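Render this sequence as a predicted structure.
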Amino acid sequence: MHQKKDRALFYPRAWVYVRSRDRHRLAEQKLNTLQAAQQQGFEIVGVSEDRCGRHSIWRPGLFAMLRAVRARLVDVVVVPRLSRLAVHRQWLGWLLRMFHKRGVTVVTTEYELRYDLYRHGLDGVLL
């Protein structure tokens, strides 16, 4: 019964993650990111959000997304920009390598991904 991805119609399973301190900005980011993910044909399997500052350690929305990635329930992570995942370059690089190792693609909706990687100094991390 299990068919390969190339033989069957495949809709990538996507997880949408947003983070913001401002409640109104959070709702706007969430709506825009969900619309962009649906327009690209992704099947939304999870949505999480964190209403916290940049340097907050406790981020249950991010932890929920990471559990889904580790359980291989997700093919794509959709974020407005990479800084929503992590502020520090080392942590962001670790996340991107972990996603790459598990075959998860990252899609950004506000910036082009290559430019966003360049802005964070991580343009060579996945080569």
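Summary. The chain has a mean pLDDT of 84. The beta strands are 13-20, 43-51, 76-79, 105-108.
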